[in-house]
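dumping the sequnces here before i forget
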Amino acid sequence: MLVLGIESSCDETAAAVVEDGIRVLSDVVSSQVAIHARYGGVVPEVASRQHLLQIVPVLEGALAKAEVTLDAIDVVAVTQGPGLMGSLMVGVNTAKAIAYARDLPLVGVHHLEGHTYAAWLGGTDPAVDPGFPLIVLIASGAHTDLIVMRGHGDYEVVGRTRDDAAGEAFDKAGRILGLGYPGGPVVQRTAEGITPSFKLPRAWLGDSLDFSFSGLKTAVLHKAQELGVYPAPEAGADATLVADIAAAFQDAVVDVIATKAIAAVKRYGAKGLVLGGGVSANGPLREACRQAPVPVIIPAPKLCTDNGSMIGAAGYYRFIRGVTHGMALDATPSLALG
Ligand SMILES: Nc1ncnc2c1ncn2[C@@H]1O[C@H](COP(=O)(O)OP(=O)(O)OP(=O)(O)O)[C@@H](O)[C@H]1O
Ligand SMILES: [Mg+2]
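..and the predicted 3d for all of it:
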């Protein structure tokens, strides 16, 4: 069964053709990162206009790379939410138009369910090996969630961020340190091979599985002021100091996320740990999570950030358990998982 997966919830216009929920036949992503970089973050109006420009070429590219036409597609899956309203609308309305014109089933997908199902695209089926229940860690631009997944479509969120998301924290740290946007990849590169000379605070929040990163962001700011690398130094920051702070910041984020993810595995007797979301592309986080006492499934870095394949995979599993949406499907910016 071929599913056309469409994703446009934030600043990536993406489409993919996925076979039987596990094989990627094509995956095309048009990123707007360079456009938003000059503003230091995503500008919603700019994002939705850019999606309008990109959606048709991206779809055509995905079909061409899979060497199929719409005739071969069995199901259209699209991110319904959460995300930016204007951005979501472009994908949802495009998917509805294709489904209507071709008389195809239409499946709306929760964006985080999409990030979860990226783990199904790595060649093994996590539902079989290691099997449910799984702990899913979604660490992305807008979320840091720990989810108990007891079966396909069966989710219980047991930990979430109380303020900033992990990706947001990376982006803010990147901005404070003058490293640019998005912060995640550049902070990781800057911190590479550095053992920080100091420790930044971790918010453990007792034995809660929730997260808090706003205190860490403030600590980064104070440290950057103290070491004279913020506000942006005119003559160029001392690269060693910036790298020191970047490494201390990354250590703190990775320590808290990996420790809580592993605690969740133990607390809920999970058979495996699944990672998803853009921050799961982070090398040290991937390494730290591999210390879990169960199998750890981490998608390839390019499947951690937004893409159409994960929506195609999640859409397939929704479809085979009987979930479809008619033309009433609507973009839902604050859609709940479940
Ligand atoms: N190597 C990395 N290390 C840390 N963070 C990273 C890395 N690569 C990407 N990120 C972060 O991932 C985030 C983007 O991830 P993603 O595309 O999944 O988020 P989003 O789709 O905007 O948010 P959400 O999925 O919560 O709606 C950015 O905040 C970026 O800084
Ligand atoms: Mg995302």
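The chain has twelve helices and ten strands.
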